[in-house]
Amino acid sequence: MHLEFVTLAERPGLMETFWDMETSWPEFMKHDPIGNAYYAALEEFADYVLVVLDDTGRMVAKAHSVPFRLDEGELPDAGWDHAIRSGLLTRLRGEEPDAVSAIEIAIEPGLQSTGLSGRIVAALRDNARRLGYPELLAPVRPNGKTDVHEPMADYAFRTRDDGLPVDPWLRVHVRAGGRIDRVAPRSMVIPGTVGEWREWTGLPFDATGPVVVPGALAPVMCDAEHGTATYVEPNVWVRHPTGA
To answer: Who's near 241: CB < 8 A, 6+ residues apart?
Structure first.
């Protein structure tokens, strides 16, 4: 299948149908308040958004990144949320970004497991190079992790016999030339009421304590007495040199 990679800046008309593409994200993942602030301001980052079109011009995948300021030597614990929050503040203050982070890769369910993900990672890296950045950072969500109680610091560095990560998404990044740097233990924080979490997951959320939610990488902590629940997701920082 012939695929065309374009930026949203090159094809702004795609915004009219940008949100129509089907994705496989769990419902609760769509409610990170910091992430939603980025998506609401998406046109501000049009040069950093890639769209993949098939030979009929239909959108079959998209990839988001964000320029931000990395004012500390070590990649931040807050991962995904930090990159987005810093990117929004950098743009608001009129400051010059000095780093770029991948934010999301979404592929139409029918094209998943076809090798497209590796091509998109490479395209994001190439776009970062075009924009003058020496590396593309990525707070990767290792969605092959099924044991929510296993620490991410253990899972992220587990490898197969061939030396590649056991996690499929981390394996895609390493095969594309990335290097695993460190865990971001509070990369994404999704707070909500127990009512909201019931709506997002179909689970009762009626007892205080950890709740195992399908699709989550760690337990959701429920405070039934106060009517709230919070998910803190660990991700894994990966560095991709661009050669810029």
So the answer is: 134, 135, 177
